[in-house]
Specification:
Elements (H helix, E strand, L loop, with lengths): L30 E5 L23 H11 L3 E5 L9 H9 L4 E5 L7 H10 L1 E7 L9 H11 L5 E5 L5 H11 L3 E3 L14 H7 L7 E5 L2 H4 L11 H11 L3 E3 L15 H11 L3 H16 L15
Parallel strand pairs: 1-2, 2-3, 3-4, 4-5, 5-6, 6-7, 7-8
Length: 308
């Protein structure tokens, strides 16, 4: 793991040597559907106008973490500190040899040939932020990008919060593209499973284009204290209500964490504690990512998309 960068505005992740090894073996083909990579900045510089400055967190660091956790696949989400420059992610996809996919950021003036090239490299979606501390996108730009990526079967990855989510869900339903709510919609765990925003998330059960990431339990927690017990009832409610629409993600390397720095092995254990049913674990960790991101089927067949 890289040394802490004194210019960083957010803390680095827990050193790999301190990350616990999960108590349970994950199923073959398990996917961490939400991670970021940062830099290395000397090779892939951060953009000048960025919402935060992280430490380097390379693809090699990520793979070492996944090996310790028993995770075979991952989805790299382009971070705001790299802006629209996808160089670091594209380099990681080459190194990932078909076992990693990505979600990108697209400028409002992105062109079809650019999107086709990203698709060929393994990008399968585009992310938009609707939280106050990040750079949000006007809805007219989102509608244009929807028309641009729809022919490729991409999805929208939505980073919302308790305030923005209720107004976003009706708009997302109208777009006609698959959409994924990051970090359980970033609802407030303090509101419990009967909170209005979380009920809106649960109401997506059965919607043919809606997905939810069981990630960021630390981000929805009201205490910020490991192991984020106040978020556990929400995770279990999602598993019981809409397992066929869920993805799991670690959110490594946890940029802008306000409370305790998560232990990624502990995050795995929290999930497997709350999802003891082997068939549901298989769906959430393996089959659902195969469907949405097009990973090769473990039996040798291919899912809905081919390898890049």
């Amino acid at each position: 793991m890289n040394q802490h960068n004194t210019t960083a505005s957010c803390p680095p992740p827990m050193p790999l040597s301190q990350v616990r090894r999960p108590a349970r073996r994950l199923p073959a083909g398990a996917c961490d559907a939400h991670v970021h990579i940062f830099g290395p900045a000397h090779r892939f510089p951060f953009v000048a106008e960025r919402p935060y400055t992280p430490d380097d967190a390379s693809f090699e660091d990520l793979r070492a973490l996944h090996e310790k956790l028993g995770i075979d696949r991952g989805v790299i989400v382009q971070p705001g500190c790299h802006g629209f420059d996808m160089s670091a992610v594209l380099d990681a996809l080459k190194k990932g040899a078909g076992q990693y996919r990505a979600v990108g950021l697209l400028a409002a003036d992105a062109q079809p040939d650019e999107v086709r090239a990203l698709d060929a490299a393994g990008v399968r979606g585009v992310r938009f932020n609707f939280v106050a501390h990040l750079q949000n996108t006007p809805w007219t730009n989102i509608e244009r990008i929807a028309r641009l990526v729809e022919p490729l079967g991409w999805h929208f990855c939505i980073h919302s919060d308790n305030q923005s989510l209720p107004g976003l869900i009706p708009l997302l339903k109208e777009l006609g593209l698959p959409f994924v709510l990051d970090h359980m919609g970033r609802v407030a765990a303090a509101d419990g499973i009967h909170g209005a925003a979380f009920r809106d998330v649960l109401a997506l059960a059965g919607h043919p284009r809606a997905w939810v990431k069981v990630s960021g339990i630390d981000r929805i927690s009201s205490t910020g204290k490991r192991p984020y017990d106040d978020g556990r009832p929400l995770v279990r409610a999602l598993i019981e209500t809409m397992a066929d629409q869920l993805l799991w993600g670690s959110d490594w390397p946890h940029p802008n964490v306000r409370g305790d720095m998560p232990d990624d092995g502990e995050l795995v254990d929290v999930f497997t504690d709350l999802c003891p049913e082997p068939d549901l674990r298989q769906r959430i960790l393996v089959r659902n990512p195969q469907i949405l991101y097009g990973f090769a089927d473990l039996a040798g067949d291919h899912a809905s998309r081919s390898e890049p």
